[in-house]
User: What shape does this take?
Amino acid sequence: MSTKDWLEKDYYKILGVSKDAKPEDIKKAFRRLARENHPDQHPDDKESERRFKEISEANSVLSDPTRRKEYDDARSMFGGGFRFPTAGQPGRPGGGGVNLEDLFRNSGEGGFGDLFGGLFGGQQPTGRRSGRGPRRGGDIEGEVTIPFADAATGVTVGVQMVSEEACEACRGTGAKAGTVPQVCPTCQGSGMQASQSGGFAFSEPCRQCRGRGLIIETPCPVCSGTGRARSTKTMQVRIPAGVDDGQRIRIKGKGGAGENGGAAGDLYVTVHVTPHPVFGRTGDALTVTVPVTYSEAALGAEIDVPTLADGSVRLRLPAGTPNGRTFRVKGRGVGKANGAGDLLVTVEVEVPQNLSQEARTALAEYQRLAGEPNPRAHLMRS
Assistant: This one.
């Protein structure tokens, strides 16, 4: 996402949380909204799809403490709700002012560069910056939906990415093949020029070259002089075992290509996990509810319990097992680097609905012989 998005979009409002919301409140709000707007729940609904992407984008910023602080600082500077100039106004092509899109594109680590220093992660320069220096590539956001079982064991998936790469026709120079860009005579290739307003001096992008430091007299017909071209590719990404629904995974150096020898950006993949009809999950533990008969719970039994990956395990129920009791099966939960988690088996005693006459007679005889005290007597005494 661009700096422009950070300033124009109110991510707190999108998730429906306050600006001082705690991380757990943000996570809870995201999960609720993601479930309500997930494309699987609303097939062919473009509005739900747009809303889902918007929610994921907001969560990717607010769930990361560092990015959240940068976002808050940026909106605080402009009072929130800042809007960039539109076509025909200063700051846009045709308006005669500073082209903010070029400013952001040339600001190094994804921020305002020389104009606002290191607010967005860049470093404040100590001298004049060359517009032809190395520039880090942009970060790329991607999403993938995987089955519950794959989230527990880990899986490699293909993620389609759309990014900007160096134009092959001009090799990223922006100039038509056979020509070369010229150093801007106004800024001498720095991409910035001094300006003064209200008694304050500051740097702003050069108006002649729009911050690039170069003048292209004959633009490349393929990329129209930008030096960049849209590229679509599929990358194999390893999703680690134990990934949570909504978790954001960073793959360093797999984002957009850098310019002029700059480092590549990062790839951020948001993982969505589909629910399982039988198993649930609590941290590294898998959970499953297993029905048992009244006689199995009363007399004790050995029952087969399903596992997520490899068949079933044998579980021994002691006599007198109460309804709702949970048993722990070691090493049959979510896989992780230092071993697998556990499987938590909760017993649910089923009361027979249809008894034959013989069974009713036998149960009545049991009741007489057992002579059980009234289990509700203590309630009457309180």
